[in-house]
Design goal:
Elements: H1 3-29, E1 38-39, H2 41-48, H3 52-64, E2 68-71, E3 74-77, H4 82-106, H5 109-124, H6 132-147, H7 151-162, H8 175-193, H9 197-219
Helix pairs in contact: 1-3, 2-3, 4-6, 4-7, 4-8, 4-9, 5-6, 5-8, 8-9
């Protein structure tokens, strides 16, 4: 095989592994592949109709991102314990504070409009629409990150958030927790609107701290087992 043919083959393999990575990642995030599900190269290669090489590359990328873990001689969807989630909160508290402070400085009218729309959606949400709560929560935080206009900060937050998407439970189906979260979003938005950097940072930090503390209360009943998982957990 000449150099040009080898280059084309590598390009096809790269595209194949990226497509496989995306499909597996999406299935982890939406819960199709539950925590603990084994992922074995041979059966996956047969399923996707490819060699083991692109499968191996896709699994390596998912493992690097924290979505998979080694179990014996194979890989499996990572099982997050309570302490894993709480460690992630420590990082996210600092990152959310930084994003809110940056947003207070750099936000545009368009950023405010997007955040206003999401907060309005939260206020209009009926008490039985619990499935919409985590979706709105994630959308609000994504727009908050985007309003920071710091691409490195956004990509870092997305990577941290990806570690728990589909792998942990949401706490927002609890009515008191949802009401608190919604009010905290209002506080963050108003601080960003007023360009109050310190207040925005404190409000974002408080929101993530409240989420962490609520989980601590849940986990205190059984510290080694997570509540029933829900996509877009928060």
């Amino acid at each position: 095989m000449n150099a040009q043919a080898k280059s084309k083959q590598r390009t096809r393999n790269d595209r194949g592994s990226q497509s496989i990575y995306t499909q597996i990642r999406d299935q982890i995030v939406d819960g199709t592949l539950a925590p603990g599900t084994p992922l074995i190269e041979g059966p996956l290669a047969e399923k996707f109709g490819v060699s083991r090489s692109p499968i191996r590359e896709a699994l390596a990328q998912l493992s690097y991102e924290g979505l998979l873990e080694r179990h014996g001689r194979a890989m499996r969807v990572r099982i997050l314990m309570a302490e894993d989630i709480l460690e992630i909160y420590e990082v996210r508290i600092a990152l959310e504070r930084a994003a809110a402070r940056a947003a207070a400085v750099r936000r545009t009218d368009l950023d405010l409009g997007r955040l206003d729309t999401l907060v309005a959606g939260m206020r209009q949400l009926g008490p039985d629409a619990t499935d919409q709560r985590p979706k709105l929560a994630h959308a609000f935080h994504f727009e908050l990150w985007r309003a920071s206009h710091n691409s490195t900060l956004v990509s870092t937050l997305e990577a941290v958030h990806l570690r728990v998407l589909g792998l942990s439970s949401t706490t927002l189906h609890y009515p008191d927790r949802w009401n608190t979260f919604r009010d905290e979003c209002v506080d963050i938005l108003e601080a960003i609107r007023d360009r109050d950097v310190e207040r925005a940072g404190r409000a974002a930090e408080q929101q993530m701290t409240s989420a962490r503390d609520f989980r601590v209360q849940l986990y205190s009943l059984n510290p080694d087992v997570l509540p029933e998982r829900h996509p877009l957990g928060m």
